[in-house]
Every structure is written in structure tokens, then in C-alpha cells.
Amino acid sequence: MPDLLLSVLSTVIDPNTGRDFVSAKCIKNLKFEQGVVSLDVELGYPAKSQSAAIAAQIEQALGTVEGVKSAQAQVFSHIVAHSAQRGLPLQKGIKNIIAVASGKGGVGKSTTAVNLALALAAEGASVGLLDADIYGPSQPTMMGVAHQQPEAVENKYILPIENHGIKTMSIGFLIDTEQPMVWRGPMVTQALTQLLNETLWGDLDYLVIDLPPGTGDIQLTLSQKVPVTGAVIVTTPQDIALLDARKGIKMFEKVGVPILGLVENMSVHICSNCGHAEPIFGEGGGAKMGADYGIDLLGQLPLDLSIRLNVDAGKPSVVADPDGKIAELYKAIARKVAVKIAAKSQDFSSKFPKIVIQKNT
Ligand SMILES: Nc1ncnc2c1ncn2[C@@H]1O[C@H](COP(=O)(O)OP(=O)(O)OP(=O)(O)O)[C@@H](O)[C@H]1O
């Protein structure tokens, strides 16, 4: 019987990965007793909003097998650590780091980063958000923690600020944003490494880093020093933003950080009066760029007043309207990001070449 059950299960396709649950090694503890099948389904990514549907899909397939009276599937997620660029040692307690970047400012990188972090948490993961955007640290406002100060522990560590179910730390808490950029620039890499290392994050499945916009020295150094599992690039459909986004892609390629995909923000404007959709910044740019570079388009967000109002109010769309259309778009992006990470290597060996010094005899 178990063989027959497994062969039926091997025809059931996971809607998130496109693979069947058997070859993806998700099926555990399969039991068959007196006509009752029970099994665990282990997913490598968080998908709380879909676990009931996945269980139903599996139970229904098993229910068609002759001799099966009932089937019960328990769906849960088990998120593991994946290797970072060039075998950089991982951050203690943090399984995966996702960098959110953009080629230029103002394309909605921070809005995407915060909603992505909250969507991963809504899907059941433990998540942290590190705001490294030196030009305009906006996460304290977006997360509704603008006037809070992180507490120091033993004069050595700092506690992240918790709200909406995730832990947030911002470079805005450390640097003086009133200081001219020329002062802040050289300090930022050190301040950021310090923030990453000295924040008591606890155990995290994912840490989302909101990088500063652009592709200058700061970004390059950060993407060399921070062990990143993968990067998400945010762009608007305008040509110029896409040109800048191309520079972002090149930068990550240079330092060996895998690109998880592209988010096209402000894709279309939906008129709040008549519902008419208008592609103000052009159409299809993200998809075309994705195709040119072999990068996936993870999702498209409309230019929607509620997205701005929600982040301004410190309650991003994923928490302000968790079952709404916008939250659904962010959750779908989050699942795609997590699925892509789950498919990555778990080989933690260093990719640096070994240098052997031989003595001449
Ligand atoms: N899809 C959207 N619909 C409507 N408004 C949006 C959308 N995405 C972002 N915004 C708004 O656009 C502005 C810029 O967004 P955000 O701060 O996220 O961009 P950024 O790329 O991180 O900018 P910076 O480079 O300054 O850090 C914000 O006021 C935000 O609320």
C-alpha cells in the first residue's frame, strides 16, 4: 500500500514550487492503518496562508485510492540555512539574509522591503528587518516605531525593536541623518556591520536588509561583506529606472550574490474613482529586463494610494489589510522569494581558492 500511496502522491504538484511532493522530499511519516492514511508534509518555505489548501489537495488525491477511507495531512514548514556568496560565514542565528536593492532612489525599495518582511512573517517565518538605507532610513516610520530607541544590553549589544511580529533595527538609530553625506559615507559600512553583529536578533529564518539605493562604493562593500543568500531588485517600469536596475544586477553579479528576482513597483495606476488601470510609467519593462538577464519577475505592484498611506501610518499594507489584494501580491512575492531560497545550495564550504605555499628544495 505505501508504494501505491507514494505513486499517487508523486502526481500531486506543489503550486509554489511546480514540483511533486515526493520528488521534492516533502513527505514524512506516511502511515496507513485500517483504511486511514496519515502523513506529514514538510515545506522548505513558509506558506501558512496555503497550508490548509495544500493539505486538502493531498487528502483529496489520497482519497481516490481504493481502500482509503480517510486521509489526514499535516502541513508544516522547516526553513533551513543556505550558503551565502563565496562561502562567507553565516551570521550566527540568522539562517538566510535577503538584500533588497534598487539602482536609484524613490522606486519603492523600502516599501517593498518592509512588506516583504511582514509577508514572510505572515506566512509563518521568524523575521528581522535591517534598515541600511543611509540616505533616508525610513523603516522606523514605516514600521510604526519612529520615536523608539533601541535598548543597550551590557553596553555591548542592542535589542531590536519589535512590532507587527517582526524585529527591526535601523541605521537611523545610530547615525545622525542631519550630517552631510560625506561624513556618513565612510562610517556606514562599519556602522552597518556593527548593527548586524551587535543586534540581539535571536533566531531568525530570514533577515531582510533594506540597502541604500544605487550602486556606489557603499553598496558594493556591503554586498561583499554581508553574507547574503540572495538579492531582490526593485524597479519601476520607466526606462531610466530600468537602466539603473541593470547596474544593480551587474553589481551583485560582480560580488557573486545570486539575484532572486525583480519586483516591478508602480506598474499601473488604478484610478480610485473609476478603477481604470493606466500604465503611467510604461508597460512590460520589468518582464523584458527579466527576460534579457534571465531573472524572474517576482511580482508587480500597482501605484496605489493605500500603499503609501499605509506605510506613512506605520502599518504597511500586509498588516493594515492582511486579506486584501495588495497584501496578497506581497505574500505571493514572499513565497516566491522563499521557494527560490529553499532551492539554493546548503554547501557552506568556502569558495575562496586554497593557497598552498611550496618550499623549493
Ligand atoms: N506601489 C506604490 N504605490 C503608491 N505609493 C508607493 C508605492 N511604492 C512606494 N510608494 C511611495 O513612494 C515613496 C517612495 O517609496 P520608498 O521610500 O519605499 O522608496 P525607496 O526606493 O526606498 O526610496 P529611497 O531611495 O529614498 O530610500 C514613498 O512615499 C512610498 O510611500
Structure description:
With 361 residues, this protein is α/β, with parallel strands linked by helices. The chain has 2 domains: 2-77, 2-Layer Sandwich (GMP Synthetase, Chain A, domain 3), CATH 3.30.300; 85-342, Rossmann fold (3-Layer(aba) Sandwich). Helix content is 34%, strand content 21%. It contains 11 helices and 15 strands. It has helices spanning 2-9, 51-63, 109-122, 139-142, 181-198, 217-225, 239-255, 285-293, 305-312, 317-320, 325-342, and strands spanning 27-33, 36-43, 70-77, 94-101, 127-131, 152-153, 157-158, 161-163, 166-170, 204-210, 230-235, 259-264, 269-270, 277-278, 297-300. The strands form 4 sheets. Strands 8-9-5-10-4-11-12-15 form an 8-stranded mixed beta sheet, sandwiched between helices. A 3-stranded mixed beta sheet has the order 1-2-3, with helices on one face. Strands 6-7 form a two-stranded antiparallel ribbon. Helix 3 (109-122) packs across helix 11. The radius of gyration is 22 Å and the shape is globular. It starts with a helix and ends in a 19-residue tail after the last helix. It binds adenosine-5'-triphosphate (ATP). The site of adenosine-5'-triphosphate has 21 residues, from helix 3 and helix 9.
CATH-wise, what's the superfamily of the largest domain?
P-loop containing nucleotide triphosphate hydrolases
Q: Major sheet: size, sense and barrel closure?
A: 8 strands, mixed
Strand order of the largest sheet: 8-9-5-10-4-11-12-15
Quickly give the CATH architecture of the largest domain.
Answer: 3-Layer(aba) Sandwich
- Structural category: alpha/beta
Q: What is the molecular shape?
A: globular
CATH fold-level label of the largest domain: Rossmann fold
Average of pLDDT: 89
Alpha plus pi helix count: 11
- H-E string: HEEHEEHEHEEEEHEHEHEEEHEHHH
Low-confidence runs of at least 5 consecutive residues: none
| Head-to-tail CA distance between termini | 68 Å
Helical content class: 25-40%
Q: Which band does the percent of strand residues land in? A: 15-25%
Structural domain tally? 2
Please tally the β strands and state the result: 15
> What is the alpha-carbon Rg in Å?
22 Å
List ligands, each type once: adenosine-5'-triphosphate
Indicate the CATH class of the largest domain.
Alpha Beta
InterPro entries: FSCA_dom_sf, MIP18-like, Mrp-like_CS, Mrp/NBP35_ATP-bd, NUBPL-like, P-loop_NTPase, YlxH/NBP35
Binding site for ATP: 103-110
Protein name: Iron-sulfur cluster carrier protein
Organism: Iodobacter ciconiae
